[in-house]
Amino acid sequence: MNITTLTFAGFVLATLVLFYLVPARWQNPVLLAASLFFLVTWSWTFALIAVILTAFNFTMGLLLARGGRFKRLLLWVGIGTNAAALGSLKYGDTLIQNLALGASPDTLGTTFLTLKLLVPIGISYYVLQGISYLIDVSRGTLEPTRRAVDFGVYMIYFARVVSGPIERAGRFLGQLKRPRRVDRHVVSEAGALITVGLFRKLVIADPLFRILPEDAFAHASSLTGPEMALALLGFVFALYNDFAGYTEMVRGVGKLFGIELTRNFAYPLFSRNFNEFWNRWHISLSHWLRDYVYYPVSRWLLRRFHNPRNVLNLAVPALATMLVSAAWHDARLGVLLWGGINAGYLVVERVRAVWWGSNPPDKQPLALQRAKAGVTFGLAALAGVPFLAGVTHLRPAYGSLLHWGTLGKPDLRILILVTVTLGLDWIQSRGEDERVFLSWPMPAKAAVFALAILAIVIATRADVGAPFIYQAF
Amino acid sequence: MLERSEIRKQLHQYVCHELLQRDDYPLRADEPMITSGLIDSFALARVAVFIEEAFEVYVPDTDLTVEKMDTLDLMADQVLAHAKD
Amino acid sequence: MGDAQPGVRLDLSGMSARLVLAAASMLLAVMAALEIAGRVPSIQTQFLAPSIGSADRHVEIQVAYLDAYSERHGAPNCYFLGSSTVLRGISPSAFEDAMRQGGIDGLHCYNLGIQGMNALYAPTVAQALIEYSHPRLILYGADTAHVDPPTGHGAAQKALDSPWFQYYLGDRSPESVAVAWLRSYRYLLMLNRFFQPHFTDWWHESEKFDFKLDEQGHVHSRPADRTNPIIFESRNDDSQGAASSRFTPLQSNIDAIVQLAALPGPQQVVVGSMPLHPSYFANQPNNIQAYDRAKEKLESVTQANGLLYIPEPPREMLYDDLWLNRLHLNAVGADVFGRYLGEHVSRAKAP
Known about the structure:
The structure holds 3 protein chains of 3 kinds.
Chain A: H1 6-21, H2 27-42, H3 44-66, H4 71-99, H5 105-108, H6 123-139, H7 148-156, H8 158-161, H9 169-177, E1 180-183, H10 184-211, H11 225-256, H12 274-278, H13 283-304, H14 311-329, H15 333-356, H16 366-389, H17 394-401, H18 412-430, H19 442-459
Helix pairs in contact in A: 1-2, 2-3, 2-7, 3-4, 3-6, 3-7, 4-6, 10-11, 10-18, 10-19, 11-16, 11-17, 11-18, 13-14, 14-15, 15-16
Chain B: H1 4-20, H2 44-55, H3 66-69, H4 72-83
Helix pairs in contact in B: 1-2, 1-4
Chain C: E1 8-11, H1 18-39, H2 41-44, H3 57-73, E2 78-82, H4 84-89, H5 92-101, E3 109-113, H6 122-133, E4 137-142, H7 155-160, H8 163-168, H9 174-181, H10 183-194, H11 199-205, E5 211-213, E6 219-221, H12 223-227, H13 251-259, E7 268-273, H14 285-304, E8 308-310, H15 331-347
Parallel strand pairs in C: 2-3, 2-4, 4-7, 7-8
Antiparallel strand pairs in C: 5-6
Helix pairs in contact in C: 1-10, 5-15
């Protein structure tokens, strides 16, 4: 069930009606039932896998809380099982093919179930949630929940199961335990988030994906530098709006049920360095990686090699973090290369900070800040080439970027949609977040709302809506 | 028994000397360091290891956040909170 | 289960619909302004022809002109249907004049020849036009397309797939109703088209053709076409060469033309044979014979089904200067042929 469809809207409405009609103690079971139903609309298998992993993590949490000699072993079994589930279900085909040095699954004569399964929806996201839950319980920073229903909602809550955000158990389960109130302010905020999310997805991202040549990277050598740069710009903006739009929508839906989901994007296009970028882009994943990979690795190394200038301290945490991030996205070589390049950027910034001290962007001249934002974005986009193009088309893609002799035929539509995105982000950066529009005077608010609804209706006259990109991860 | 003022003083010294590399920087106890970009969030790993060594207090990774470590005051709160653990 | 679940309380007190109402009012105002602009001729002509949701831009322009014609003169009560030979080759004003002189008055004819249209689509297009304006007369111009299978061009299919045509074929979905009734909606659809992948191709489709339309659907060729004599040399100078197998009449096409007689409504249906320049069959005596047989078959079948059939005019009536190329008449030729058709139809006292 695609969340930009009227079917999904009907499903949410029906769930809301039921949710508010039942007594309080039945509200979470309603959410869980709705979430299971949502998964079943994708596939019974997906729902079954989600239930199995949820039950596993719930049980492991209770076992870990008991402590004992085998606590550490249990933790690694828990992490390993989650990772193995993700690895086999998501990467099984790729790994088997890579191991067989390119032989097709048919010639291998295997009958592995994984070769026939589609990647279960949301597994990348709820596996990370399961792992973080087990680690937090194991460390004693989180009491394991004894409410199986609440834990089920935490793991597979329909509003966020498809593509996140990746929630933390303490924050999410804490909400479920508290009395909440959904009043007209919350409904307004939800409306603003859903509207902006739909606008990003349907008016910006989908048209961009339609306009951009599918084979831009396959035929990179036939593109001029400006054409390739524009295509790359378009892909990055399409990806950003697709994912940011999705997150805004699910946050809005979550609010209607009294659940605050984590913000996932904070105008990353204006980031002035990569540290800032990774605190603004796919925030829930970045922070997960920071808390469960970067910090533990960094602290472990710092305890052993006290000198912060030690090359291991400088390079390993960033490399480990970005490679885990890359592997989480996909096992393709191009994606791993993307992770490596971004790790390189972070290492350069670490070296600079460690050698010369901090250089707060806020204290620099505005022009310099803007220039740095441009450079950061440019470097991030360049790192995105292997992610988007794969290693096969890497050389022609980078090669075409060097040919700026002729302008070629730049597509004005891409520039228009890029400008709209920048405008939207700029407006949101003036306020707290996407809900900045709510603080505007009524005529301005109504005009923006009318324009957004009109744009969404007109944009959806297209035949087919593109699926969410991050759903594929 | 750890005194808040002492904790703050040592943290102040560490941040200015090691992270900012400016001993004379007039860092206030309530001045946001991470949100202002004075230090980046990745540097919190170094702060955490310093806290471990200076105060023998372990601040969990999940508490090394902007919300809990943005100012010297907040850092001191974390040290005191986890000192009781 | 543990301690009691606190739950979520819904409290919508104080909630007002002011924002939604204000936004709705603004939307209505914008739509109203666009609607007025789209119906005032002096403003309308400043805009691009709006979209009807078709993948064929040329048909959209034709429908826009059809609407403009309807607003100025009332809805047409007479249509010319067929392919580009009809579009270029029959002048509505010349036809009307001839009909008037033959004692049949009150006809407002509109030329809706569609580039590349095959006979198979004729009944469906006719049905939509019957629903649009209940015409008195539909004249179908049969040409080589009545022996050909549908071409890859697919313009007619693209036209029929559009919400506009679908509305007049009975579809009452919100999309079809909006496109049929709201000019403002059609203008907004242009924004949608702009962000479609093949916008450039779609946009330039209408520019591929070397003529302009007026609000009667009448084609205006380039001025040079009127005076530039066509030199009909070897058969290799254009793509309108024909293999001998081409002129076997397709029964499905003939059936489709005959189906025009069975359409609901009191309209008279006339089938006219569109002329071809003799050089079309240069050095191909087999093709000439095959095409003649195809025309004979069409004539006998249509007449057997009660349709008035008008054969091609004599060769000497359409001399070389009246031709744009081997297949299409120029504007002067369209006048001559339009008059010829009008004379024959009025003589037969239709409608």
